[in-house]
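quick one, 80 residues, struct below
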Amino acid sequence: MNEIQNAIPTNPGEGLTVPVVKVASVWGAVAITSWADFAAMLAAFYTLILIAEWGWKKLLRPFAERRGWLRRVHRRHGDE
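---
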């Protein structure tokens, strides 16, 4: 029961301050100190997602279909 009571903030502003400080320290640890750095990180992450999607569609999925690991997706009525 003492652990629960210790986790409840006693001061009015303490409940929000601690998580904000933790998040700020994590962003500082990965060298994101401005909104420009944050935007650059998001752009890099989005680019990696697009590259992974391209690799799946153009390289990995056709390879897996040829090997028989995945069924071929029929996009049109006449595809067999």
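The longest helix spans residues 35-67.
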